[in-house]
C-alpha cells in the first residue's frame, strides 16, 4: 500500500485511530503537531510526509520556529554566566583604584630586604586581643538566633559609660547608640544611609581617610576638600571632621571644632566626626564633637563615630559604634534594619568587655607611646621632619622629596610606608608612618634608619 499512511514503518491500520486522524489533519493544525514524524525517513510515509515538509516551509510556521529557538536561547542565557569580556549592561559607580594596591611593587622591594620587611603602611593592630575580650566573645558563642541591629542594651550602656569615663562626654542616651560593623563600613555608607545624592556636596578635610571620598562617590555627590578652619560651601549636606587626623595626627581644638559645627549647622548640614583615635592623644588632648564646648550642649545634626580596632586590637572583630543626634541615629537604625547591617552577637559581647575594661586600653596606649618615641627619634635622625602628629597612630613625615621617592627610599631599607598622596593632593611630599608593628620590628626599623 504505497499511498497509505505509514507511522514508524507500520500501516495506519495498526495505529490508534486518534493518532492517524491527528496526522491527517496536519494541514489545518498548529505548529509542533508533526512530532510523530520527527526523525523518520520520507520514503516510509509517502506523499503525506512531503505535504508536511511543505507545510513547515510556510512563512508563518518558519516564524514560529525562529521564535521558539530565540525563546530557548533567552531561557538558556538567563541560566548561563556571561562569557568572559561580554558586557552585561550593568555598571557601578566609578571609583578610584584602591590605594594600597599601588604599593605592590615597592612592597616586593621591601620584602626582599635580608632582614625582612617592617610594615608601617597600614594601621592594623599586631598585638594580641586582650583575654577579657576573648572570653566575652566565647561566652555567647552558642547563641543561635539573629542578633539585634540596635545591639544589646548592655552594649549600649557600656558605650555610654566609656564615653563619660574616657572622653568626658555626658548627656548621651543609651537608645541613641548604634553598633556598626567596624567604622569603615559606616564611613563608606553614611551618605547613602542619610539620603545624600547627586547635587549635594560632601565636605572632607584636605588630607583625609580615603573612604570619606569613596562614600560620596558611591552616591554621586560632589566632594569638596576643606583646609583647617575653612567653612563648608553652600549645598553641603554632610561634612566630615577628623580629630586626631588620619593621616597627619593634627588635633583640632574645641573652639576650632565648634566653629566648624556652627558653619555646618547654618547650612543644615550633618557633621560626622570620625573619632577613632580620640583615646590616643600624645602632645595634645583631643575632644569629641559631643563635648559641650563643641556642641553647644545640643547634639542636633551631630554624629560621633567610634572604633575599637586600635585601642582594643579588634580590627579583626569589626567593632564600632555611632551616636549623637537621636533623630539621625533612629534614621540610621531604620535603614540598617532593612539592609541587614547587623553586628554578630559574639562581637557585641566582646564590645561590652572592651568598653567596660579600661586597663587593657592603658596597656595598649603605653605600647604605642614607646613605639612612637623610638620611630620619631629614628626618623628625625635620618633627616626627616615630623609634622603635627600630636595624637593618633601615625607620624606625618617628610624629607622634602616627592612622596613616592621617599616611599622607595624606605622600601630599599626594608621599611614599607604609605605615600601622603593616598590622603589628598596636598600630601605629595609626605609619608604616613604607622606605629602598628611589634616592638622588635619597630626597633629593627630604627636600626636601619640610623645605619
TrEMBL record:
Keyword field: Aminotransferase, Transferase
The keyword Transferase appears for this protein: yes
Domain Aminotransferase class I/classII large: 117-449
CDD domains: AAT_like
Positions of the UniProt region annotated as Disordered: 31-92
Family the entry assigns: Belongs to the class-I pyridoxal-phosphate-dependent aminotransferase family.
Biased composition (Basic residues): 63-78
Organism of provenance: Allosaccharopolyspora coralli
Record-linked NCBIfam families: DapC_actino (TIGR03539)
Listed InterPro entries: Aminotransferase_I/II_large (IPR004839), LL-DAP_aminotransferase (IPR050881), NHTrfase_class1_PyrdxlP-BS (IPR004838), OxyQ (IPR019880), PyrdxlP-dep_Trfase (IPR015424), PyrdxlP-dep_Trfase_major (IPR015421), PyrdxlP-dep_Trfase_small (IPR015422)
PROSITE patterns cross-referenced by the UniProt entry: AA_TRANSFER_CLASS_1
PANTHER family the UniProt entry points to: AMINO ACID AMINOTRANSFERASE, L-GLUTAMINE--4-(METHYLSULFANYL)-2-OXOBUTANOATE AMINOTRANSFERASE
A Pfam family that the UniProt record links to this protein: Aminotran_1_2
GO terms for MF: pyridoxal phosphate binding; transaminase activity
Protein name: Aminotransferase
Keyword Ribosomal protein recorded: no
Superkingdom of this protein's organism: Bacteria
Amino acid at each position: 500500500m504505497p499511498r497509505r499512511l505509514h507511522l514508524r514503518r507500520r500501516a495506519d491500520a495498526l495505529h490508534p485511530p486518534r493518532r492517524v486522524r491527528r496526522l491527517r489533519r496536519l494541514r489545518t493544525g498548529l505548529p509542533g503537531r508533526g512530532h510523530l514524524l520527527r526523525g523518520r525517513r520520507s520514503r516510509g510515509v509517502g506523499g503525506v510526509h512531503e505535504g508536511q515538509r511543505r507545510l513547515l516551509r510556510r512563512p508563518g510556521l518558519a516564524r514560529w520556529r525562529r521564535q521558539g529557538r530565540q525563546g530557548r536561547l533567552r531561557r538558556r542565557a538567563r541560566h548561563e554566566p556571561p562569557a568572559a569580556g561580554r558586557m552585561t549592561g550593568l555598571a557601578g559607580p566609578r571609583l578610584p583604584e584602591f590605594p594600597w594596591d599601588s604599593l605592590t611593587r615597592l612592597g616586593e622591594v621591601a620584602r626582599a630586604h635580608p632582614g625582612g620587611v617592617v610594615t608601617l603602611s597600614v594601621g592594623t593592630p599586631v598585638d594580641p586581643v586582650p583575654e577579657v575580650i576573648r572570653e566575652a566573645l566565647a561566652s555567647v558563642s552558642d547563641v543561635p538566633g539573629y542578633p539585634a541591629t540596635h545591639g544589646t542594651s548592655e552594649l549600649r550602656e557600656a558605650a555610654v559609660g566609656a564615653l563619660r569615663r574616657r572622653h568626658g562626654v555626658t548627656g548621651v542616651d543609651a537608645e541613641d547608640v548604634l553598633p556598626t560593623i567596624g567604622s569603615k563600613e559606616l564611613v563608606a555608607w553614611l551618605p547613602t544611609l542619610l539620603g545624600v545624592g547627586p547635587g549635594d556636596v560632601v565636605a572632607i578635610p584636605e588630607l583625609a581617610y580615603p573612604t570619606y571620598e569613596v562614600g560620596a562617590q558611591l552616591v554621586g555627590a560632589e566632594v569638596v576638600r576643606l583646609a583647617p578652619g575653612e567653612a563648608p560651601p553652600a549645598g553641603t549636606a554632610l561634612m566630615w571632621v577628623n580629630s586626631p587626623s588620619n593621616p597627619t595626627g593634627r588635633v583640632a581644638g574645641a573652639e576650632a571644632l565648634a566653629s566648624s559645627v556652627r558653619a555646618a549647622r547654618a547650612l543644615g548640614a550633618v557633621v560626622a566626626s570620625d573619632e577613632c583615635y580620640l583615646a590616643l592623644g600624645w602632645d595634645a588632648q583631643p575632644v569629641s564633637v559631643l563635648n559641650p564646648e563643641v556642641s553647644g550642649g545640643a547634639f542636633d545634626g551631630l554624629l560621633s563615630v567610634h572604633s575599637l580596632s586600635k585601642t582594643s586590637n579588634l580590627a579583626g572583630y569589626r567593632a564600632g559604634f555611632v551616636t549623637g543626634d537621636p533623630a539621625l541615629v533612629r534614621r540610621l537604625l531604620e535603614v540598617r534594619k532593612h539592609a541587614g547591617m547587623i553586628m554578630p552577637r559574639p562581637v557585641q559581647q566582646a564590645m561590652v568587655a572592651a568598653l567596660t575594661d579600661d586597663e587593657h586600653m592603658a596597656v595598649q596606649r603605653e605600647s604605642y607611646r614607646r613605639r612612637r618615641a623610638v620611630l620619631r627619634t629614628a626618623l628625625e635622625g635620618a633627616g626627616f621632619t615630623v609634622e603635627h602628629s600630636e595624637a593618633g597612630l601615625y607620624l606625618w613625615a617628610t624629607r622634602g622629596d616627592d612622596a613616592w621617592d621617599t616611599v622607595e627610599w624606605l622600601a630599599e631599607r626594608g621599611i614599607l610606608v604609605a605615600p601622603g598622596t593616598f590622603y589628598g593632593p596636598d600630601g605629595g611630599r609626605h609619608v604616613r608612618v604607622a606605629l602598628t608593628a611589634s616592638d622588635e620590628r619597630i626597633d629593627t626599623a630604627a636600626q636601619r634608619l640610623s645605619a
